Every structure is written in C-alpha cells, then in structure tokens.
Amino acid sequence: MIAVIIKDYSDFFGSFPKFMSNKNPIGIFDSGLGGLTVFREIERALPYEDIVYFGDTARLPYGSKSKDTIMRFSTENILFLLKKKVKLVVVACNTSSSFALDYFKNIFTVPVLGVIKAGVDKALKLSKTQRIGVIATKSTIASARYKKELLDCDKNVIVYSKACPLFVPLVEEGVFTGKIVDGAVNMYLKSLKGKVDTLILGCTHYPLLKTAISGYLKGVYLIDSAKEVSLRVRMILEENNLLNNTKRKPKKEFYVTDKPREFMKSAKIFLKKEISRPKVVNV
Ligand code: DGL
C-alpha cells in the first residue's frame, strides 16, 4: 500500500493499493437518486473518468433510519462497488457520511471519501458572521456530525441545525418550485431567517431546491456539498497520480436495488439527459 498524501480530511480514509491504475472507475453510492447531484458534479469536474453509480433504491430513505442500519447498508454498498474495481469510493449520501465514515476507517481496500468535510470547509471559508446553518435529513441532524466538524475547525462558530424531512419526497416527485415547496421552505427555514449568512445543503437532494431556498433566504450563501466534493475527488486523484486524462468518451454504469425504470426517468430530470438503463442487483 502507498500512503495517501492528503491527510487533513476527516471524512477521507484509506490508501490506494499499489496496483491501482488511473483507468479504474470512480465508485459513487447513495441511498437512491439524490447522489446523482454528486455524480453530475464529478462528471463535470472529471470528464474522462469512468464512473460506477450505485443507488440503493430498494432500501431508501436512509434519512430516517438508525445508525446500525445505515452502517450495515453502507458497508454492503461499498463491498458491491469494490467488486466493480473502483479506485475510490465517494459516499454521496450525507446520512451515510454522517454515521458510517468513522467506522469505515481503513477497513476497505480503497479510500473512501464522504461529503461532510468538503461542505464544512467551504462554509467556513465563506461565512463572515460565523453563524452557519445546516439543513439535512433527520438522521444526519441527529448525528450532529456537521456541527461537530464545524466546531472542530472553529469553536466560535454558532451552528443552527434543522432537519427538513419533506424536502426529499418533494424532490423525488420532481417538484422543485411552486406553492408546496415555498410552504415547506417557509416551515423549515423560518427559524434560520436573519440568523445565518451561510447555509449548508447537507443532503443530496437539497441542491435541487436551491432556487426556492435562495429566494427565501436572500443573500445567504448556499453550500452545495456536491460541487465541493467533486473538486476534492479531483485533487485526491491528481495528488496520487490516479487521474484519468485519456481523452475519450468515458463509461458510466448505473446499478440500483429496485425500480430501474423510475430511476432512469428521475435521472433524466436530475441530470437533464438520458442515462443507460440501470442494472438491478442485490447486495
Ligand atoms: N441521500 C440522503 C442524504 O443525503 C437523502 C435521501 C435519504 O434519506 O435516503 O442524506
């Protein structure tokens, strides 16, 4: 094994095996569709990488499940991606990243990167008042992982956390704007209005509600972890000479545990393009 050069990510663990080639794909997993926001950004930042995306559509949502269950599901998902010979696993799901990453520390044969620290670092960089909001699923908020990461970096930060459980089903239904979204945004974000200057969108689905959220919290920086994590993936691969720069059309494979047709339909809304038909697998 060779040592990973980047050491200051608290949600990045493991080392690249010596035999790893830059031609191996990047693996991404999420509880379902939401991780496509991370897929989309990784695709943009790393246009020549092959990507294997795994969505655990049979067992979602993770955001209301217990720590033990989330850890078990997440471990199974990573083991599946390892069979696809990925060079790096990106845990796109914030709920999995919140609970399972410490447990994943150095137990897999390739490095595992979560989405929490990338968003935290960006929020700390942008915030001028050190009053930062975090919105996420119930389980992510209950884990207090974002809060801990923020305070570990800067103990003077005041963190306002809010679970927004209705945001996920709205996005899953393809409802991103309009009266119902505005009502949910008002209900959840009322308590943050005027208090924070930066808001971390701590859930895969929330970047799709950016228009509604920024309309409500005018002037507040919205942190899209997906974008930040894609830059981090790029940096990690570059620093370890594992970036695939061969100019060609890369391969994108999709795997789900249920409902491939629905996944494909929603993927078209998320990515604004067609994807190849996902294969259904059991993990
Ligand atoms: N992917 C989850 C997350 O980012 C949201 C959807 C779910 O609850 O499974 O936390």
Structural features, described:
This protein has 283 residues and is an alpha/beta fold. Helices cover 41% and strands 16% of the residues. It folds into two domains: 12-114 and 228-280, Rossmann fold; 117-225, Rossmann fold (3-Layer(aba) Sandwich). It has eleven helices and eleven strands. It has a seven-stranded mixed sheet, with helices on both faces. The protein has a four-stranded parallel sheet with strand order 7-6-8-9, sandwiched between helices. The relative contact order is 0.20. Residues 1-7 have low confidence and may be disordered. D-glutamic acid (DGL) binds at residues 30-32, 34, 60-63, 93-95, 137, 140, 168, 203-205.
